[in-house]
Amino acid sequence: MTVTSVHDPSHREALWELEDAFERGDLVSVFGTCTVSYEGRAASDLGAGDRLLVLKPDGAALVHTDEGRQPVNWQPPGSQHRAAVRDGRLRVVSTRSNPDETLTVRFSDVHQLSAMAVTGGRDLTLHGSEEDLRTRILERPGLVEPGFEPRETERPSNAGPMDVFGVDADGTPVVVELKRRRVGPDAVGQLARYVRALEEELGIEEAADDNGGTGDGDRDPDDAPGVRGILVAPSVTDRAAERLADRGFDHVALDPTPAE
Amino acid sequence: MTVTSVHDPSHREALWELEDAFERGDLVSVFGTCTVSYEGRAASDLGAGDRLLVLKPDGAALVHTDEGRQPVNWQPPGSQHRAAVRDGRLRVVSTRSNPDETLTVRFSDVHQLSAMAVTGGRDLTLHGSEEDLRTRILERPGLVEPGFEPRETERPSNAGPMDVFGVDADGTPVVVELKRRRVGPDAVGQLARYVRALEEELGIEEAADDNGGTGDGDRDPDDAPGVRGILVAPSVTDRAAERLADRGFDHVALDPTPAE
DNA sequence: GTATTGATCTCGTGC
DNA sequence: GCACGAGGTCAATAC
């Protein structure tokens, strides 16, 4: 089996194993007592402690403590790993450019080092994403509202691509913004940008909304809108609901996956 | 140091080690060939392949392939790990509630299993965050613009807390939104929400309070906005710049850390 | 390369 | 518990 593993190695022994593992393109895990420092997009220091260092052949480096889903320190894929023994410590440095950043892990003790050749088997089939929600709607447009007709997905606009563009039963243009989970006010802002961009593009002028300054698309919900906005999400927060009402947008409660 | 480590263990042997490690509250790493399935906020399946499984005493579980900073599958902290041998495979299941979700890892082969007791040493000192940017501005308000006077940070509003609230040289209220890096249109929307909320708030106060506020609260609707918005960030995208101009907001180029 | 947005985002903080 | 926003976010995609 292609796993090498050393228990309580000397620094020099650990160094050999690391260099071999880098050479082979192995996935490496190192248990040990170390300090960590990072400099790049920000800068950080982490005092001595026991941690797990994971080094990947694609250049990713992860320093994990006993808590949290997130590594306490890391280096993104595309970095270069190097190892050396300096000042009686095993030093692992991972660097990359653009942006320039460096992660340095200094081990006073290495307790356990393992390396394994790993290939393939990384394609995940995932269900329940925003894309699934879109598929669901395209297959059954009536879920949005009776008479809704999708015309285009990822339709380009000055404000970027809108999730779904279509028309309602009256033929009024509709912008649909999809979210796979409960949303806050930011999603309403996003929808508003698309609606506004489409209104400008279609040459639909809103009544009395061109004083520059703070005019930001407020409308009277009683007005017949030039372009409608519909937010499709399982639910919305109170503040988002307020903002939806302000803009005259609708919310449709829908999950990315059908109820089971 | 208490590191246990087994190479090419039988499933039963691996099971013992796992259960002991769970008992002791160890940080665990497992190299092996496995399939992974997840069901909860979404659902996913991953075919057989060699991976690294990390199990943390706080309940976090991470499945890593040879690529990427992100685990291909995971379970958040607060989950419960369990292990068993079923159908000739070593099965590790991690579950949590609220939301209900389950990660199942089935090993056909375990190549290497290590466990280490880990405590403390997880407080990181980080520099270059948004908070550093705020500190910088509070110490030298002139960086925003000459005459700017910060009055409050995290000032509450109907739209949430604004990063910095203050007044400019003319006494006009100013909302400052801070970003540690280059920003897109979303940040302008965020700033706009705060400015709008503050305008409404001040409008209500003026209407409800006959004395008006301080003398410097006067403004000319045609000329100056009631509330100014300033986005402080290293830089902004074109679309964000457009949007800033639309709203009449200003951009101040500033890094979280002084140039070196 | 930059820009934009989704994510099983995670994580902290405040209510 | 929910809501809101930051993050060295990461990662995919379009340009």
TrEMBL record, chains A, B:
Main location: cytoplasm
Key words, A-Z: Cytoplasm, DNA-binding, Endonuclease, Hydrolase, Nuclease
Region (Disordered): 145-164, 205-229
Chain's role: Cleaves both 3' and 5' ssDNA extremities of branched DNA structures.
Compartment(s) where it occurs, according to its Swiss-Prot or TrEMBL record: Cytoplasm
Official protein name in the record: Endonuclease NucS
Residues annotated as domain Endonuclease NucS N-terminal PH-like: 28-117
UniProt-recorded Gene Ontology molecular function terms: DNA binding; single-stranded DNA endodeoxyribonuclease activity
Entry EC no(s): 3.1.-.-
Class in the EC hierarchy, top level: hydrolase
Record-annotated Endonuclease NucS C-terminal domain positions: 129-203
Protein family membership: Belongs to the NucS endonuclease family.
Pfam family, one: NucS_C
GO-annotated cellular components: cytoplasm
InterPro entries according to UniProt: Endonuclease_NucS, NucS_C, NucS_N, NucS_N_sf, tRNA_endonuc-like_dom_sf
